[in-house]
Each structure stands twice: as C-alpha cells, then as structure tokens.
Amino acid sequence: MTGYIVRKSLLMIRRHFKVHLLFALQTAAGIAVIYACLTLQYSTAAQYREIKKEIGGVVWEVNVVSERPSDRPPLDYAQYARLKERFPEAEFPFCIVRTVYYTTDGTEIRTGRLLYASDDFLRVVLDADRPGFERGSAAYAGGGMRGLLEGRYRLIHGHMPPAAADGADGSGAEADAELAGGLAVLPMEELGAGRTRFTHHHLENVPLEQIALLPLASYYPSFRPEEAGMFQLSVRFGPGADEDAAIAGITEILGHMLEWGGEDYHFVVGSAGERLLSGYAEIRAGASAAGIIAGICLATVLIGLAAVAQILFLRRRRAFAVCSALGARKAVLFGEMLLEIALPSLMGGLLGAAACSWCLTAWVQVPPIRQSPAVMAAAAALALAPGMLAACALAPGFRRLRPIEMLRRDQA
Amino acid sequence: MTLIELMDGKKSFRDGDRETVVLDRVGLRIERGDFVAITGRSGSGKSTLLHILGCMDRLTSGTYRLMGAPVDGLDDAKLARIRGKHFGFVFQSFHLIDELTALQNVEAPMGYAGVPRRERRKRALELLRRVGLADKAGHYPAQLSGGQQQRVAIARALANGPDVIFADEPTGSLDRSNGDMIEELLVELNRQGTALVLVTHDERLASRARRAFVLEDGRLLER
Predict the structure, then answer these.
(1) Where are the beta strands (DSSP E) in A158-285?
(2) Of A116, A144, A334, B92, which residue is most buried, by most CB within 10 angstroms?
(3) pTM, 2 dp
(4) Residues of B in Cβ contact (< 8 Å) with A323
C-alpha cells in the first residue's frame, strides 16, 4: 500500500504542480541561504581553530607611531639583523610597503606596491624559500610592475629603488652604491608564490601581479621620515614556542626598539592572530545575521505552506470522504497529504542546499569552504521541516474528519 | 447465509436538548446475493440507513453484525478495512476523484487494500471493459458524461470483489437512457452473485428488487 500512497501523492503533486513549485522554490531559496550561513559558520570556525592553533599567541606585530619627524628609521637593517641574531628561532616576516602610481601608455594610471621584504616574509607569507634575498639585488615583480622596474613604464608618483628608477623619471640622483648595478628583475612566477594565507595588512586583496618584492636592505638608503608609520615588524616565534615565551620575546624586542628609537617613536604591539581571528569573527557574525533572516523567511514560507495545506485539505475533504468509503484509513489519507505537502518542499530544500554547496565551493575562497555532514543533515532536516509542520497542522482536521458528513453535505 | 444482520437499530441526532430519531428499532437481514430496495420520502433516513449498513456511520443503539460478527465496537481503521474488503459504494453524485483518471479511480480501492500495482491495473482495465469504458480509461471525470461517470463508479465499487454493493440513488442524477443502462448493469451484477442494497425514489427500479422496504417515520417496513 505504501507504493500506492507514494504514487498517488506524486500524482497529486503533478496535478497541483504550480502551487507546489512555488513553495519548492521558496524553500530552496531559504534553505540555500541557511545552508550558506551554516557552511560559512562551520568553515570559519574550523579555520579559526586552525589559525588559533597555528599562530595563536606566537605571532606578533609591532606597529610604529611617529612622535616627531626623524631621519632615523624606527628599525634600521643593522638593528633588524641584531634582532634576528638574538632570536635565531624566531621568524621576521617583515616588510615595508610603498605605493607607486605609473602609466603604461600615458592614458591609464595604475597602482603598484613595492614590498621591501625580509627573507622570512618570502618564506612565511609567500611560501618561497630565498635565503639572502633581503640583502641581495634581485627583485621579483609581477605583470606591469616588472615593466616599471625595468624602466619601460613611466612612474607618475611615488619613489622607486634608485637603479630601477633611472630610466623612469630621472630621480637616479639618489642612487645607492649597493644597488649601483641595478636590481635584477625576475618574474614573480619564479617565486611560485601561490599561497597568500596571511599577509601584510596593507596588501590584503592586492593581487601579486601588482606587487614587486624588493630586498629589505635596499629600502633604508631612501627612508623618508613621513614613511615611519609604514614600518610594521612581524615576529613569529619558532616551532615549540609557547605563548609565555613569545610574550617574553616580544617584550624584549620592544625594549630594544625603544632603546634604539624610543625618542622619536613609540610602538604598538598586538597579536597577529587576534587581528586575523577578529576578521573571521566578523564573517561569522555576518553569517549568523543572514542565517537568522533566512530562518525568518523560511518561517514565513512555513506559514504560507500551512495555509495552502489547509486550502488543499478543505478542497479535498469530499475526496478524502470518498477514499474513506473505499476503505482508506484516516492515517493513510493523512500520510498521502503529508507526502504531497512535504515532498516538494523537501526536494526544493535539498536542491537549494546542493546548488548553494556548489556555488560556495566554486566562488568562495575565504574562508576555505569545508562541507560538513552535520550541516548537510541540518539542511535536510530544515528542508523537511516546513512541509512536515504544515502537514502536521492538518492532523487535527484529519482526526475530526467525518467522511459521512462530507458525503451527506455534498449530496445535499 | 446471512451477510448483514441489523437488529433494533436506532439512529438519532442530538441538537441541544432535542433528539431527532431518524431510525427507530430497525431490523434487516441481508443474505448473500440478495437484492434489497429501500424507498421512502426525502429525509426519511434512507441514506442514513445505507451508511450504517455500509459501516460509514454508527448506530446510536442496536446491534449490527457482519457475517455473524458484531461491528459496533470496532474502531474507524477496522471499519475502513471492512468497507474496503466487503463493500462497494455507488453514490448519486458519482463521487469520482477529480484528479484521477477513470482507470486510477477504479484502482483506488485496490490501492488502499494493498493489491500489487500490476494486478491492480489489470483488474481495473478488466472492470472498465466490463462496464463498457475500456476506451475511456485515461479520461478524467470532467471529460466523461454523467452516465459514464456512474459506470466508472460501479467499476470502482466492484474493484475489491465486494460481497455487497450499496447504491444510493444510482440513477438519480442521470437521464432516462443512462439511468436504464446503469439499472441493467446493477441488476446484472446482482444476477452474477453480488448482493445489492439500493436506496431509490424510483418505484420502477425498486420493483425489480427481490425484497423492497419502505422507511416511514424511522421504521423500516417490508412491502
């Protein structure tokens, strides 16, 4: 008999296709949004846990605030080298960012970023191991930046490394002896820098092709007092370092920096992990808000569906009475109606979740999307809920259904 | 063999303090292959009696036995099973299910009785052939004439091979020629061994019954 009930319910769905399709679409939309929110929540939470485990309290950033104009940088290369020597286990994914504007053909202005980076920056941030890069004369540049560094494009505003700028705007007067031979500009692709999981905050969402990586040491000869605020020393304490050791280390580093430049600058220290994690917290909060709104929408779908279920029930009371006369039990008739109401919304919900899952995987990079069986199960349960609840609202009606009264009324 | 036995059957409806007695100490025995006609004025309780005999309604008091077993205390589900297995119904206004084709309407009682799909379909087509509507199997009720709808309803009533068919004014909504056709069909079914209980205003139809009763003031009197 189950087969007959399912078949008949499908038949009824086909006969009332337009009504069911609309509710299936509404449920699909609601479930898709809820599924997206839950998946984002889940992915963010997983990423959050991973990052916390990985960098938790062992990655710190020291930001610089200028007290007064000074010709001395907050941390010169020699001082930086001393810090590296003092903390051989630590990594210094350190870079200074300069923004430049240039044109390729005289009509379009492009923006580029010059990153004076440490070896550790390349290794930790870009996954590229190039020991000695920070003191060398090789630069890596992507796309248009390469043309700028090689002097093929014209610099409009900003400051270039002396040797490379020679052919651009003639500011080579400031040429540094160390770079007299000019920078050897290599394509960014040679770095194989595909991964930019955490990066300098000036560079978030900047594609690598708009970036040129320059040796850190090459920055200092052209230091300008107004650029002091660009310093941001990142320190990552080595493997095995616990949070207490990291705090002690960063305190010592801060002491040295205050000793070297404390008259001209003060320093603000923060955990990089906290900054990253607060970003994820924002995504989670956004996803929660969207999820709540979608939940409310789904509740309105439920109300609409319940109303339609009631109308269908009232319209079909005579048919139910006839079926009852033919030997159908009330429970069977209720089962038929339940299937008819719940199946379309379930199918809509499942399709919505599947489509959303595909879209999230295809289009969302941050946070990396992870599919959770629990989220899938929750989406399926939610997809089933509107139909089930709407149909269950009919249960009292079925209990009170008196087939004979329906037939009598119809006959009258 | 006695199929149905109704003894001292009383059916009353309560409206506040007022009690309206529709059936009063009604007694009736229906044998296998019987043909019983019940006549009476409008509102005399003929349909109520038919519904009680068909286990669609319950007695207020009295005893109702089906093949010797009392059914008064059975719950709705068991009564539904009895209706599906032993009874077939033909109504004045056909009561076909609009969303189902003629074939699907005939299949419905078998579906609820758990008959496998292939057998259900085969038997439904055979029944439609028997009532001369094999070519209308895929038609919806709205696409059929009154007479055709009633023939589908008769095929449906026969679906589970019932012991008795209850027909409530089966020709009441039909013109003369269609009415005659339905009348012949029912009489033929009875000839083939199915008991027939007929409620009708039609004296001519009632006269063809083996036994005829008239319902007057709640009492059932044999004519």
Answers:
(1) 184-187, 211-215, 232-236, 265-271
(2) A116
(3) 0.66
(4) 97, 108, 112
